[in-house]
Amino acid sequence: MLPAGPAGRRVGYRKNEMDLLPGIPLGRTRRTLRGPAVATEGLLLVAHGSRCVQSESQVHALADLVSAALPGVAVDVGFLEMTDPPAGEVLDRLVERGCRRLAVLPVVLLGAGHAKSDVPAVLLDARRRHPAVEFRFGRPLGVSREPVELLGKAVTASGCAGLPLLVVARGTSDPDANAEAYKAARLIAEWTGAPFVHAGYSGVTTPSVPEAAELFGRLGYRRVAVAWWYLFHGRLIENGRRELAAAAAGGVEFVDCGYLGPDPALVPLVAARYREAVRGMVAVNCDTCAYRAPWPGREDRVGQAIGVGHSHLASEHFHRAAGHLHSDAP
């Protein structure tokens, strides 16, 4: 969790002052070389990208921590959209540094379209450009002990153990990913002893943040803990906080216990995902995946080729940067 971040913030009562770790600069982060200048082993951390400059800084901060834990491995960061550098461009740079085996990890919590289609599309495109290089794909961080424990401890540290709990997650069109958010919410509630827990989503699916917040008031709760199932800061958290501030006008106090951020406690999990990829031991849940078996309203996803969905954004991001036409979105 972020020690200088939003733990214990009361939505609607006190403005959050800082969402960055001490020493992380506010603004665009200058690209630095991590690991040896020449390396045969490499790791690319692929993040979504954001119009929020704090998000980029935090992604790089996590990469710095991961690099320190993996000596001898060239570690770098790339993005799918909105933030430079594009993931494909960074893969090319790692090959130029001598990498002959590259692990590519989606730095996301939920295995939705970005992890199942978009990042694999970046990897397949890199294989075509570099046929002599061995590329390995890793799984998302997922609903794992480390992030659950971090948010559970943050709720407790905010004085909210035993309070009803609202967990806000990124909404997706993937049923399995949305269900994983509910699983995370339940596990955090088990950690904190919450008498009631509900999940709200920042978009795409329901219940929305305002809808989820309203339920607590209808049930008679007047003080609610809020945990954000997000790795990094961004516009979705900012929008959600504004929505909760509006909901607080109805007489419910929402205590913001924060999001994960580039916490050192996440490094062993990232390192474990890297080692899984290198050893070819990646295991994912396919039982309820809409890409494997028909799901009502999403039947067209079964057997869908990798790269269908948002992947065109990652491809356009890469080619715009290659043509020196890319500029960051406002």
Q: Give the helix level as a range of percent.
A: 25-40%
- Which stretches are poorly predicted, pLDDT < 50 over at least 5 residues? 2-30, 323-330
List how many beta strands DSSP finds.
Answer: 9
Largest sheet: 5 strands, mixed
Structural class: alpha/beta
Mean pLDDT: 85
Number of domains: 2
CATH architecture of the largest domain: 3-Layer(aba) Sandwich
Q: Please count the helical segments.
A: 9
Order of SSEs: EEHEHEHEHEHEHEHEHH
* CATH topological fold name of the largest domain: Rossmann fold
Radius of gyration (Å)? 20 Å
User: What is the name of the CATH class of the largest domain?
Assistant: Alpha Beta
Which overall shape is indicated by the principal axes computed on the Cα atoms? globular
Strand and helix layout:
Layout: E1 9-10, E2 41-47, H1 53-69, E3 73-79, H2 87-96, E4 101-106, H3 113-129, E5 134-137, H4 145-157, E6 165-169, H5 175-192, E7 197-201, H6 209-218, E8 223-229, H7 235-248, E9 253-256, H8 267-279, H9 311-322
Parallel strand pairs: 2-3, 2-4, 4-5, 6-7, 6-8, 8-9
Antiparallel strand pairs: 1-9
Short description:
The chain has helices at residues 53-69, 87-96, 113-129, 145-157, 175-192, 209-218, 235-248, 267-279, 311-322; strands spanning 9-10, 41-47, 73-79, 101-106, 134-137, 165-169, 197-201, 223-229, 253-256. It has 330 residues and is of the alpha/beta class.
